[in-house]
Specification:
Layout: H1 3-49, H2 53-99, H3 105-112, H4 118-143
Helix pairs in contact: 1-2, 2-4
Length: 152
């Protein structure tokens, strides 16, 4: 294959990789916005529309647990499916670039992020999941006591 054909193939590979990258970015943004919106609406409804305090504690516990389950499942899907699709596309690009040193954009990016920035993704999810986990635990611990201020 000559260089012109390699560039055409590289462009096709790059298009596939960018498609997966855009898919992941949209997925993460929609996930965070959706979780935030559900949490905000639920917080408002539970705080202002539920009169019985014991019911508020129960709803707070179960809603936060539901959000936690959704978030953990979505993070798993992101990290172990969508991210792997992207990494596969990038690996194909890197393999092609090894054969044609003139093509080096993906190799340059890979040099900046040798692990594919996976640790940054884990940290980002952890910054949301860990506080939500602690809130969920707190909500369940205060669910039967009836007074959440005494348990702080």
């Amino acid at each position: 294959m000559d260089l012109e054909q390699a560039i055409t193939l590289w462009f096709h590979y790059e298009t596939v990789a960018m498609h997966f990258n855009e898919l992941i970015i949209q997925y993460r943004l929609q996930l965070m916005a959706g979780i935030g919106a559900i949490g905000a609406i639920a917080g408002y409804l539970v705080g202002s529309k539920v009169a019985e305090e014991s019911d508020r504690h129960k709803l707070r516990a179960f809603i936060s647990a539901g959000l936690l389950i959704i978030l953990v499942a979505a993070a798993y899907l992101d990290l172990f499916y969508y991210n792997e699709l992207l990494r596969g596309a990038v690996d194909a690009l890197l393999e092609l670039e090894c054969q044609y040193p003139e093509l080096n954009m993906s190799s340059s990016i890979k040099a900046r992020f040798p692990d594919g920035a996976t640790k940054h993704i884990f940290i980002s999810y952890g910054l949301v999941i860990i506080p939500l986990l602690f809130f969920t635990i707190w909500a369940f611990c205060t669910m039967n006591t009836g007074n959440s201020k005494e348990n702080l």
